[in-house]
Each structure stands twice: as C-alpha cells, then as structure tokens.
Amino acid sequence: MVFSSNLAQRYEIFAWFKYYSDLCCNQTGVNILSEFGLFMYNTKEIAVLFDFDGVIMDTETQYSIFWHQVGVDYLSMPDLETRVKGQTLNYIYNTFFAEMVEKQKEITEALNHFEQEMSYDYVPGAEEFVADLRRSGVKMAVVTSSNEVKMAAVYRRHPEVKNMFDHILTADMFAHSKPDPDCFLLGMKVFGTTPQTTYVFEDSFNGLKAGMASGATVIGLTTTNSREDISGLAHYVLDDFTGMTCEKLLKNYTFVPRT
Questions:
Q1: Sequence spans of domains, the chain
Q2: Nearest to 185 by CA among 193, 75, 10
Q3: How far apart are CA 219 and CA 207, in angstroms?
Q4: pLDDT value of residue 114
C-alpha cells in the first residue's frame, strides 16, 4: 500500500487505523502507524510488571554471595545460589531445608541482617524509565519474590519506591513461587489487563520462565545472566534501561501475540 504525503490524507488514514485498532486491537495497525511516528495503544490499558532484584535494584550479585555461603556452610552445596534465584524464601526452605527448623531460623536471622546492610542501587536507567511510564499513564507494579521484611529495608533506604509504582506485590501475596506464573497473573488481575497488553521485565531464569508462562511479552535484562543465556527465555533482551522510554518500548518492543 502506498500512502500519500498529503497531511490531511495522512490523518484520515490515522483515523481509520485508530477505529480499526480500537475495534479489533490489531497489532498491524500499531506497526503501520509507527511509520508515521504515531502510536495506537491507549497507555492506560497497558501494564508493566517489574521484578525487583536485578531489574529495579542491582542486588543479585549480593544475594549470590549470601546464598553461596549458606549452601557451602549448611549443605556442602557449591551452587545453591544458582538454584534459588527468583525463588521465595518459603520455596527455598521447603526445597532445600525441609524439616531443618533450627537451620531455617538461623538463616532467616542472618538474611534479615544481611538485607539491612545491603546496598540498594538502581539498575541504570530504571528510575528514568519508570518516571516516563508514569507520565504516560502506564500501569506499573513490582512483582517480587522478596517478602515484606526485606521490602521494609528497601523503603528505609529509598522511601520513593513506594510511590514509583501502583502496586508492590510481594511473596506473601501469591501461592506459588517462580517459575510458576502465579505472581504475574496476579499482577494482570490487579490491573484488569490481559497477557496481550502486559509487559514483564525479568532477569533470573525462573523469573523469565514465569513471565513466558503467563503469556505476557517478556523482556529479559542481562544484569544477572548473559545475553546468550537468557535469549531463549525472553521475547527481547536489554542490558539495562539506559535511554529507554515509553515510546521506545511501544515502538521497538511490540507486543508478541500469544500462541
């Protein structure tokens, strides 16, 4: 199809595609309009769900050190840290420390102390990207395997985090741990969105698998694992959020139809 350069005709075409997109929610309309620098989605109908550690805050390396030491000290296991990324504390205890009540208490106490002393630095570009999504009216939630005790430590360092997102969903709020998609499905339920209009940002293998299982469009970050390692577990891959905006998200990382 050849489009006229006449401005009036361009906007007549725009109006037609807007009607079509509103009626059918067809991705083709968005792609064609993007050629004109125009975007069809009502941003208020879009949800973006962020994991926290390794996506909003650059903390995964610190957790790897902690869980590596726990694995060596308690289980003589040198790779526990790779097995627990993206998992809730309940899952870790039930899977690796079942019926070890005293050891669970010791680890919990050590973890609580560790999290109070951790550094919480934003992943590059995260603050700016979230702020731009907010200005664009996009619904946003943190969906994390962390519990409320850990998040309280985050709020003490960064009180602004509470107001950056519409919701912060923690491990206490969903029944199953990643890679089960329960947490992301809860995020969609809270916002009343569908997988077809939801983005998931994740970094861990289990988190990426959960995002894909939810049916959302998944964008993996290389903050924890290499691009090569996660490329098959996400629709798109980013190093971090540097330079990312709502406009770039919708233009360059279009929703992937659910099959």
A1: 1-40, 43-58+122-252, 60-117
A2: 193
A3: 11
A4: 93
Helix (H) or strand (E) holding 200: strand 198-202
Model confidence at 3: pLDDT above 80:
no
pLDDT (tens digit, 9 = 90+) per residue, 182-241?
A: 999 999 999 999 999 999 999 999 999 999 999 999 999 999 999 999 999 999 999 999
Element (H, E) at 218: strand 217-221
3-state secondary structure of 99: coil
Which pLDDT tens digit goes with each residue over 104-148?
999 999 999 999 899 999 999 999 999 999 999 999 999 999 989
Q: Is the pLDDT of residue 177 over 90?
A: no
Distance from C-alpha of 180 to C-alpha of 251, rounded to nearest angstrom = 29
What is the maximal distance between C-alpha atoms in the chain? 75
Rounded distance between C-alpha atoms, residue 81 and residue 209, angstroms: 18
Q: What is the pTM of this model?
A: 0.80
Residue 235 token pair: 């629709």
Q: DSSP secondary structure string, 7-46?
A: HHHHHHHHHHHHHHHHHH--HHHHHHHHTTT---S-GGG-
**CATH architecture for segment(s) 43-58+122-252:** 3-Layer(aba) Sandwich (3.40)
Does residue 184 come out as left (phi exceeding 0), alpha (psi in the -120 to 50 range) or beta? Answer: alpha
